[in-house]
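Help needed: design a sequence for this.
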């Protein structure tokens, strides 16, 4: 069991911790692992599959059973002794209407063509597949929490940029209004500023609703009624994994739980085919028991018996050959599905690396653009105040700066999710990984 899964299982078994006034990414992820129903269900399924291994192993042990029966007959019948009856001897023979029988029996299969071993192997493979499914669910949940957490931070940054723009345009509207009232500016300048302010206010409303929706989505994921976006600690960025593509592909092949699940599914299908082939072999069983007979009057006798039984169906209507053919087809399908999963993971790795490269370049470009456009907006404002600039140029520069700040926030969020998606593919994603690579600012 991986450290991540061990932690997830422990958290699922414990009550979720109460939310705190401040919420870090690691705390949000830890709470999601404790309360989210998808992981709870996957953990329970893995536990059930693990228990089925013990159930299959029980076939290697002798089967011991007991039975007691009381039978009432219409007419008296012989109840003692039932076996070893000598018609020439009448002494010691009891006739009663009530017959009491007790049995303690033991049976053991000496040979079954390998069916038991194949069933145990199939149960182990199923348990491994469900454990891998649980691992994949935990990784998906961690990635989803990170995505939702960063979405709240992004929406909060965009709302801050919109608030800054609204304040700047409000101040500009007041300044232009004074100039128009004094006859130093044309009324059209005030109309131009008011139009820009109305647009900025509309964008601010949209940013506020986006922030509310993102906060509600994160709250649902971690199982709390509501989240204050201001309580989230900003992330310090993401550490970029510079491992070469070939090494990353090898890590995906070795550790991705989806591929592990596909491998276990193939093994389970292989064991099912072995079970089907075992039907072509005879089955040899040993049995024995202790039997007691008596009457309602209290006369009882016991005896033992033991033997071996060889069974083999001479004709089954084609059931055995059809079962082998079906199991073989399912094995072929499982192997094909495994190859499909391998191809899909390779495609996902290529897409993730391409997206990460593109988004990291975009982050660098937007970082520079925000700095330059902020300076442009400052210069345009100074030029406007000294009479060397125009209102239209200032408004255009301010709007472009505000829009670029929002784009930079979205690009930084995309950079974080791209690196998280890569860690999910390679199986490296965990609480420790989040702490070391996408941890919050101190």
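Sure. Designed sequence:
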């Amino acid at each position: 069991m991986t450290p991540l899964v061990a932690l997830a299982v422990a958290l699922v078994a414990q009550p979720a911790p109460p939310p705190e006034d401040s919420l870090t990414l690691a705390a949000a992820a830890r709470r999601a692992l404790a309360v989210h129903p998808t992981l709870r269900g996957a953990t329970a399924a893995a536990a059930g599959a693990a228990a089925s291994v013990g159930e299959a192993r029980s076939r290697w042990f002798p089967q011991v059973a007991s039975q007691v029966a009381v039978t009432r007959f219409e007419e008296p019948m012989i109840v003692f002794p039932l076996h070893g009856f000598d018609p020439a001897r009448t002494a010691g023979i009891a006739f009663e209407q009530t017959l009491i029988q007790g049995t303690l029996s033991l049976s053991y299969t000496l040979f079954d063509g390998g069916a038991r071993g194949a069933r145990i192997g199939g149960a182990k493979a199923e348990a491994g597949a469900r454990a891998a499914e649980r691992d994949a669910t935990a990784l998906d949940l961690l990635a989803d929490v990170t995505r939702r957490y960063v979405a709240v931070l992004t929406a909060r940054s965009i709302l801050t940029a919109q608030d800054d723009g609204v304040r700047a345009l409000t101040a500009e509207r007041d300044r232009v209004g004074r100039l128009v009232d004094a006859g130093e500016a044309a009324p059209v300048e005030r109309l131009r500023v008011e139009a820009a302010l109305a647009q900025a206010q509309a964008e601010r409303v949209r940013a506020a609703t986006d922030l509310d929706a993102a906060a509600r989505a994160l709250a649902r994921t971690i199982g709390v009624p509501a989240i204050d976006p201001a309580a989230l600690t900003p992330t310090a960025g993401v550490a970029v994994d510079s491992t070469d593509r070939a090494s990353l592909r090898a890590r995906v092949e070795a550790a991705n739980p989806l591929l592990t699940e596909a491998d276990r599914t193939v093994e389970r299908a292989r064991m099912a085919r072995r079970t089907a082939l075992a039907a072509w072999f005879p089955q040899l069983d040993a049995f024995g028991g202790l039997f007691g007979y008596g009457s309602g009057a209290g006369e009882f006798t016991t005896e033992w018996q033991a033997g071996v039984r060889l069974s083999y169906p001479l004709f089954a209507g084609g059931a055995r050959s059809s079962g082998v053919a079906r199991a073989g087809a399912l094995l072929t399908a499982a192997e094909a599905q495994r190859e499909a999963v391998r191809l899909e993971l390779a495609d996902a790795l290529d897409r993730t690396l391409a997206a990460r490269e593109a988004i990291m370049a975009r982050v660098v470009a937007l970082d520079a653009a925000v700095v330059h456009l902020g300076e442009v907006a400052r210069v345009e404002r100074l030029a406007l105040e000294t009479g060397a600039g125009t209102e239209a140029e200032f408004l255009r520069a301010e709007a472009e700066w505000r829009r670029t700040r929002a784009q930079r926030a979205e690009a930084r969020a995309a950079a974080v999710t791209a690196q998280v998606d890569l860690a999910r593919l390679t199986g490296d994603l965990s609480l420790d990984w989040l702490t070391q690579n996408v941890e919050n600012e101190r």
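The first strand starts at residue 63 and ends at 80.
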